[in-house]
Amino acid sequence: MAAPAPTPAPPSATYKYPPEVVDLRTYAGSISKRVIDLKSKRDPTGEHVSAQALLIADAVESACAARSVEVLEPFAAVAVEEIVRLFSSCCAALDAANQRPRFGAKLSAFAARATSRSPSPSPGELTSLGDYRASLEAVKALLRIVDGQSQLVYSGTLAPLAARRPVRALTKDLSFANRTITNQALLHDAISKSTVVNQVYKTTLQTMANITDGLPFPCKAVAQTVLQLHQHGEAYRTIDSSIGTLIRKVDDFVEVLAKPDRQNIAPGEDIARAVERFFSAVQSIIIRLEILRATAKIKKLVAPTAVKTAVADAQADLDDARRLLDMALQVDTNNSTRKILHAQGLAKRVAIMGAGGLGKTTLANAVVQHVDVAATFGARRFLVTAEAAVEVDDLLTGMLATFGLPASSDPLASLLQHFRSHERTLLVIDNLETIWNSANAQQRRMTEDVLSKLDNVTSLTLIITCRGADLPPDVEWANRDAVVLSTLSPEAALATFTDIAGNIPAPDQPVRDALLKEVDYMPLAVTLLARLVARGKQLRDLHRRWNSVHTSMLRTQPNGRLDNVDASVQLSIAFLPSDDPAPLQLLSLCAQLPDGMRLPVRNELERLCSFRDIDGALDVIQGLALVYVTDDDTIRMLSPIRLYVLEKHRPSAAHRASLLRIYYKIARQAPRRLDTQFPAARDRILPELSNLDALLLSDIQNFDESPSTDLINAVNAVSRFSVHNVPNERLLMALIPRIEHLPTYLAYSLWILAKIHWRRDAYNLSLEAATRARSLFQSLRQRSDAASCDQQMGNSHRVKGNYPEAIASLSAARETFYELDRQLAMAYCDRDLALVFHEQKNYDDAAALFTSARKVFLRLDEPANAAVCQEMLGDIYRMRGDYQAAETQLESALQTYTSLGSMANIASCSCKLGDVYRVQQRFNAALESLQVAYDIGQKQGDTLCTANALLIRSYVHRDQGQFAQARRLLLDAQRLCESIEYTRGLEHCAEALAELDRAEQA
């Protein structure tokens, strides 16, 4: 019963619609066909749905005719995508209706029971066609369809709308939105009268409006669009609380851009590009949220998963715009030159500060050579260096020669007279730290006196570069709030590297990116790496050298600070006071900690090491930019600086012993079991995990004496915690060869190693470690520990498909625990035996064991293990086809895992739940659940988890007819199963490939 629809304006014969528009037309046709197939004449709802869908498709085609998608942003790329999703869901509802008589009444009845069903309902079950009709009408109004054509194209800003408002009011709003506000007075008035933003933010928006005044669209429309976003912010937050985070990101961008010193944004420059990207992102957010509001009756389209999908792309654009802005403001020589060129009143004084290797000299040279600076100052541009000056008089005498002035008994007076005799002069003094950071207090005072007198010359523009973070006093520095250069962004570092070394072959690009990250994107280190590659060095060789010799490889000349990272860092260290060892001592301790020294550690060190004034020592090294302090009072170092200090300036034995004592205590606090206390304990130790790893590994490797019991216990505690976090065997692999003569400690370490290998899917290695640990425990007559090794061996045999061996090991362990009256350990064995029965498809015996073990776990306060049993009971329901019961059990187990922070269990349960959603044809929910499992597997290096997630994802795509994607995922899963010799997984992959072949041939 297809309804007639207006005919769109025909495009040119050669025009091809964008793929999104083609998909939309295909779905609209499918809706019409499905309505005809229903053959219901008593209920006109289907006819209305078909008519609205065809009308929307025709209107979109009329808007897109002979235009590119880019021209129609954000309409074509965002709105069309959301409408396609709406049409797809409508098709699913109609398919469900085709299978039931009196589809209107059936679907309405299902909708009435929505509150008693799953939170992520199937659209065919919970949404009536009347809801689709209402939503389609709201979308039609939103798109401003007049005479079958959409008026919504990229000709101005789009005001956010309430989809449920009367069409007449909607049209009025849209008409206003399409008139770009060109009169600044109107915009300022709208901002000042707004009741949805506070006075501070009103001022910020006013500033942004002034900045962008006179620029072409879209830059000048940003302030208006952000205001519109805020006007409907509360309504958007009711869709999902995460929208609030999105709006805060918008506000952060505006506040950074609208700082008082942000002036004269020129189109085509980096900042203008960032603003343009930002505008597009905000517009996309508005469009997506309005479509969501228009389709509010469709339960699936406003489910949490759908909301996240709807805003993800726009949020990525927003983050990209912020990265562009940060790059533009971070290393933006144009910004610095504008400060110079547009100086009014007092001449500008700019200080470029920072650690060695951050590009201070490079930036100063760029300013001097900039074309606008050359046009303004002409030949009156001078860069002098203080690098070779021993004292202030050396610098002044050198400056006389630079300016062609005769020698004088008072060189400063001659220079001041010279500067005052010229209308305009630019003077850059490079490496001022040579004389200003001098240990000679008199030279420091004389340097400050020179700067003060230069500051009084109104015709002089002065720029200095100086190592450190502390500004020379008594000068009105123009950039006082942002004087310290930071490292490059990852994107800027990559661009710098490519400019010097050229394009890198694809196989070597991960090595290049890893190297850039490991040098903390420090400009000098990035430049020297690129020069080495340009000279023919292989990236993989450089990476190996970096891991062994670190910063000493970063040199292209022996001693120059601009060609040698070590020389650059040592130059800063040379300015530390020679009469006070505390700053260097603190620096050497900080270098031991790759993740920084946190405030509690610093306070404890002050007590144990008897620092007379640790804050004063920190001020010294922070003033030289050898360290920086974050908002949480953590002292951090750039990687090249830290590695140089680590090698060249080791702490005293007493200080290092104190540091180890502190971290041994931290290690003892690592949680050992998954219980209600685990999340809080995990969060306390995670910030120190990298520091623990570095300190303990260094302690194992670099000292000749036998490891202390404190060290062994710390390594075992951290390694056992890693079983529940991200499995890491590195510390144990280094420790075990050093404790072969200590059988008790060795056996325990091997048992933990077996569990880590098992979690990392290295089942043969797990068996080997558990077998050796079992032998040691037996020789020590520790029956319970030996039985624990039997249990671990049984689990490895199970995953390898060796079921008789698994049952034998687990039964032996259970018998020992029974004799020792260890009820909890017996329950562990019952749980693991049930897993064997489950894999053998003996579901009755498996369910009985899971049920009995769960009762014990609940009684003994073992929530994680109880949830494992519940998860597996849910999986048995899944295998038996009772998907509602399976969903209930699995979602309950997942809730327990989430409350405990058990990531591996979350991943396992999410895989099973994803398969349940798949069978229920809730494909978006299935893919979201499987993505969670896949991400955890990737992060934790859990190959088995990753393979299972890929396998079930392939089922989802196969069920939707996406055979090529399903095959690719299956082959990836098969490869991973082969890598860990997972027999059962390989069988599943083979079965799935055979079924896929049959589906493709059907």
Nutshell version of this structure?
It is built from 48 helices and eight strands. The chain has a four-stranded parallel beta sheet, with helices on both faces. It has a two-stranded antiparallel sheet with strand order 1-2.
Q: Would you mind describing this structure in some detail?
A:
Strand 1 and strand 2 form a beta hairpin. By secondary structure, the chain is mainly α. 65% of the residues lie in helices and 3% in strands. Among the domains are: 136 residues, no CATH class; 160 residues, no CATH class; 135 residues, Rossmann fold (3-Layer(aba) Sandwich); 78 residues; 76 residues, Arc Repressor Mutant, subunit A (Orthogonal Bundle); 100 residues, Serine Threonine Protein Phosphatase 5, Tetratricopeptide repeat (Alpha Horseshoe). The N terminus is likely disordered. It contains 48 helices and 8 strands. Helix 3 packs antiparallel against helix 6, helix 42 runs parallel beside helix 44 and helix 44 packs parallel to helix 46. It is flat. A 4-stranded parallel beta sheet has the order 3-6-5-4, sandwiched between helices. A two-stranded antiparallel ribbon has the order 1-2. A two-stranded antiparallel ribbon has the order 7-8.
